[in-house]
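User: quick one, sequence for these tokens?
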């Protein structure tokens, strides 16, 4: 009788099975996180007060008896960080907002593959370590809603890949470094609700879409050089500072600009040229609570998609231009708290039951015959004596 042929397949399967058993029992055989990354994560946790780490939080699962990038994550490092596809490097840290308190370790700089760092809505304090600037791949940095103090390190300009920088709602002070201009990929910058002083940087990052530096202590004038290359800028929020001077027309003619809020500053004038052939994307303008003098800028009525305009609580005088009432897409118009005179255009008060085509207010001015039934005419006009004083002893005639 012939012997059956030797089964090579059987041996092959047996070998694979033995190897698998071996792999399963090898510690961390699938991969190991880079030692520099582990050291940085340990330091990050050490710099956080243990008493501010709730048992249910991400940081409480950072137990270094296990490898941070090991998968599957059953009990350790189950949240707060993401690793590279080969499980050797940490590429993102997003801490949960549970009130972690402590400072940010300077060893964060060892996480050289980090693309995203978000420590927002916690209680971090102390300064922003300048070593952060060696994270050359970082695209998004958010330290918002913490208590960071001190200056913004000028080395921040080394974060060449940065696209989104949010440091809002901290206690940062000093001037805004001119090195921000080097951030050529930055599209969003939010430094609102800090204590920055001085002027705007000489040049802002050229590819910004969103600029927000609300509620700081910035002063000086808004100069064209700061905005020269900003052809993609859509939103400008600089309200609640101490800017002065005259706002010039180039600002309102930035090609992509949609919203501009410069309220609660100390601007004294505004120049608006005609839009001309250039079509503007400007939808909302807020220049309320400044010291703007002169007449209402009639050329604003030519901006084709302007829907919301506030010039409330300034020092404007003269009539409300008729053109404003003929602008059908203007839905919100706040002109209260000025010294506007004459009779407001009748076009604002047409319609059923004296309802106006716009929401807003013409109150607290020196207007004559503002229909008392119209909400637009609230609050009441200024006393005659105040208006007479402003207009040199006599009330201006009706327009």
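Assistant:
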């Amino acid at each position: 009788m012939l012997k059956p042929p030797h089964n090579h397949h059987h041996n092959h399967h047996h070998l694979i099975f033995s190897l698998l058993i071996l792999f399963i029992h090898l510690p961390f055989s699938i991969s190991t996180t880079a030692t520099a990354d582990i050291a940085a994560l340990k330091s990050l946790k050490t710099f956080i007060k243990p008493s501010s780490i709730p048992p249910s939080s991400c940081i409480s699962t950072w137990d270094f008896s296990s490898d941070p990038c090991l998968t599957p994550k059953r009990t350790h490092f189950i949240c707060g960080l993401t690793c590279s596809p080969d499980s050797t490097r940490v590429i993102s840290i997003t801490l949960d907002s549970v009130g972690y308190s402590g400072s940010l370790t300077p060893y964060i700089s060892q996480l050289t593959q980090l693309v995203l760092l978000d420590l927002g809505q916690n209680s971090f304090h102390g300064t922003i370590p300048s070593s952060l600037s060696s994270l050359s791949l970082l695209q998004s940095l958010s330290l918002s809603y913490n208590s960071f103090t001190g200056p913004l390190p000028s080395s921040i300009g080394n974060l060449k890949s940065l696209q989104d920088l949010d440091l809002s709602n901290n206690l940062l002070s000093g001037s805004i470094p001119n090195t921000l201009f080097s951030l050529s990929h930055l599209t969003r910058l939010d430094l609102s609700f800090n204590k920055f002083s001085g002027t705007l940087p000489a040049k802002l990052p050229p590819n910004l879409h969103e600029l927000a530096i609300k509620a700081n202590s910035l002063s000086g004038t808004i100069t064209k050089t700061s905005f020269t290359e900003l052809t993609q800028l859509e939103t400008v929020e600089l309200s609640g500072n101490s800017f002065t001077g005259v706002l010039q027309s180039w600002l309102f003619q930035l090609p992509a600009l949609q919203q501009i809020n410069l309220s609660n500053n100390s601007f004294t004038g505004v120049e608006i040229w005609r839009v001309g052939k250039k079509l503007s994307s400007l939808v909302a303008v807020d220049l309320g609570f400044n010291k703007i003098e002169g007449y209402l800028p009639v050329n604003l009525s030519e901006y084709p998609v302007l829907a919301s305009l506030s010039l409330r609580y300034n020092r404007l005088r003269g009539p409300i231009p008729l053109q404003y009432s003929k602008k059908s897409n203007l839905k919100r118009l706040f002109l209260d708290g000025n010294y506007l005179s004459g009779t407001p255009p009748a076009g604002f008060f047409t319609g059923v039951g004296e309802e106006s085509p716009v929401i807003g207010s013409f109150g607290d001015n020196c207007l004559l015959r503002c229909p008392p039934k119209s909400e637009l005419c609230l609050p009441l006009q200024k006393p005659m004596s105040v208006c007479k004083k402003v207009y040199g002893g006599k009330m201006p005639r009706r327009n």
